[in-house]
Write a structure and sequence with these properties.
Number of strands: 8
InterPro entries: BRCT_dom (IPR001357), BRCT_dom_sf (IPR036420), Ribonucl_H (IPR013520), RNaseH-like_sf (IPR012337), RNaseH_sf (IPR036397)
Strand order of the largest sheet: 6-3-7-8
Largest sheet: 4 strands, parallel
Strand content: 5-15%
Number of helices: 13
Organism: Neolewinella aurantiaca
Pfam families: BRCT (PF00533), RNase_T (PF00929)
Protein name: BRCT domain-containing protein
Oligomer: single chain
GO molecular function: exonuclease activity; nucleic acid binding
């Protein structure tokens, strides 16, 4: 820098080395190349100024995402001696980071269905399985909403029938959560979210839950234990987890331990060989989530994952 005429330079910034120690204390090596490999960050040429800078920026973004620091990012002020060099400032608009998912997409589809129904041969189980796949990440995209609409159109399913099937889906989820005879706080929050995604009104859902509670108290629970659908599959976790198990927050190490004990294969990064990515926030913009979406890798909400592999969280 002195050769370039820069005698004085001060900057307040972030150190990816220090951040990696906080976010991933278990990493054996923290060289830029090792971090890029760990986070699946593509680098064209190591040890070139442009590519190393770009790689560092990508690693920094992943680390901030992992630490839950997805807030507005502003450029740091710096003092540089007047050598005629231009300074470029990069700002990220907080509003562009917030992804607002709509909860009423399926509700609109139900309301727009005809009230009458012609004779059709739809398969309820097939439709429930479709809902299961769509709600796996607790988000209904426009494309997924169109899948529902297309299915209803193909089989001439009425508004009333569609609502009843959605109620049955909600009932089965309630029954599944009541296998341990308790609805935890996390499960209660999830039930509320799912009811909105299904387009069901609060009164109906409260009634369904009360009926299932009554069935459970009478020893007439209709739910069956399901086999672990992810056994033998590879899984990667991204972002700060929110699950609590026996009073202790589930950290990344504990998550790996639980997944391994249920027959899953742990992956550190996202690649075409990954089977599922588990997220606490379905709207996450982490590097792993973006890459999973680009590779069409299923993204599974954390609470769905724990329940699917038989881990009962608080």
């Amino acid at each position: 820098m002195k050769l370039s005429g820069v005698d004085y330079f001060e900057i307040d910034g972030l150190c990816t080395l220090q951040l990696s120690r906080i976010a991933f204390p278990e990493l054996p090596c923290r060289r830029l190349s090792s971090l890029c490999e760990y986070f699946d960050v593509d680098v064209n040429n190591y040890h070139t100024a442009a590519d190393d800078s770009l790689a560092t920026a990508k690693v920094l973004k992943v680390l901030l995402d992992e630490l839950g620091e997805l807030n507005e990012v502003q450029s740091h002020s710096c003092s540089v001696s007047n050598n005629g060099a231009d300074r470029i400032e990069f700002n990220r608009d907080k509003s562009n980071l917030k992804q607002q998912h709509e909860l009423n997409k399926l509700s609109r589809i139900i309301k727009n269905r005809p009230d009458f129904e012609t004779q059709s041969s739809y398969n309820v189980s097939e439709y429930l399985n479709l809902l299961d796949r769509i709600l796996e990440d607790r988000i209904v995209t426009d494309e997924e909403a169109q899948l529902i609409k297309g299915y209803a159109d193909d089989f001439n399913i009425s508004s009333l029938t569609l609502s009843k099937i959605h109620e049955e889906y909600f009932r089965r989820l309630c029954s599944f959560y009541l296998e341990d005879e308790v609805i935890s706080e996390a499960e209660s929050i999830d039930l509320s979210l799912v009811s909105k995604l299904l387009g069901l009104d609060e009164t109906t859902c409260d009634l369904i839950l009360r009926l299932e509670l009554g069935q459970n108290k009478n020893g007439n629970s209709r739910s069956d234990k399901k086999a672990n659908p992810y056994e033998g599959k590879s899984v990667c976790f991204t972002g700060a987890l929110v699950g609590v198990l026996k009073g202790d927050k589930i950290d990344r190490e504990k998550a790996h331990e639980l997944a391994l004990s249920r027959g899953l294969i742990i992956k550190k990064g996202v690649s075409s060989k990954l089977d599922i990515l588990v997220v606490a926030d379905p709207n996450t913009s982490s590097g792993k989530a973006k890459k999973a979406r680009s590779l069409s890798i299923p993204i599974v909400a954390e609470i769905v994952f724990w329940n699917s592999i038989g881990v009962v969280i608080d």
